[in-house]
Each structure stands twice: as structure tokens, then as C-alpha cells.
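New to this. Please check this record:
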Amino acid sequence: MKAVTLRLLMLSLLAGAGSLGLSGLAGAHGDVTPQPVDTGNLKKLGSDWLDSNPYRGNGDAIRIGHSAFAQNCARCHGIDAISGGIAPDLRQLPTGEEGDAVFQGRIRHGSIRNGVTYMPPFEGILSQEAAWAIRSWLDTVHQE
């Protein structure tokens, strides 16, 4: 019963943030500043977003992605991507290019429904390299 009440409270708070005009900011993150991700060991990808993950299976990308997820995504999606129910369980994101397309759309553009920011856009905040590193790590924790 407490978990349901907590979820309803959190959804209510998120809805309130949208109605206060905070949805254009990293509103779903409250006053938490996104953390930089050091991708210096990874091949540079340029400014045009790729359609599929160029780092799939890359050990450096997986390590960087795990750290980047912990610093920038775990607040909502849970430690090690084990969701507490408020945000989607990213361990169930489809694998391969199908999942890449879903991931890319959401991380770049976020999710806003009925004026409420459920996930802020990270394009321009996280680099393409950082985003694909996170996706590389998510592949390693995938569950059906």
C-alpha cells in the first residue's frame, strides 16, 4: 500500500512541476544537475546522430555507460536500471537496432505528455558518445 501511495505522490509532484512551467528545464530531475561523462577513450562519432549503437559490446563503452547511467539516469530509472515503478524498466528495452531507435528518440527528445515532462531531453546535455555508451551498458543488463 505504501508503494502505491508513494507512486501517486511522485506522479502528482511531477504533474505539479509541469503546471509550474518547469517542464522546459530538467524538471523531471528537480534541482539535480546532469553530470558530465568522460568519453575520451571512445571513438568520436561526430555531430550527426547514428541510427544504431556503434559501441555495442565495447568494454570501455560499457564501463563508461554504467557510470554515466548511475550519475544521470538512476534517479528515475533505478540503480542498475532496476526501476521502482515510476520510470520504465530499461532492462526491458528491446535489443539491437529496434531498441537503439527507441533509446535514441527518448534520450535525445525526452518524453512530454499533456504538458508534463516525464523525461527531459538530453540532446545537447549528454554527447552522442555518452548516450551510446549508456545504451551499450543497458544491453548488458537486458531482461525479457
Notes: The chain has one domain: 2-140. Helices lie at 2-19, 59-72, 74-77, 96-109, 128-140.
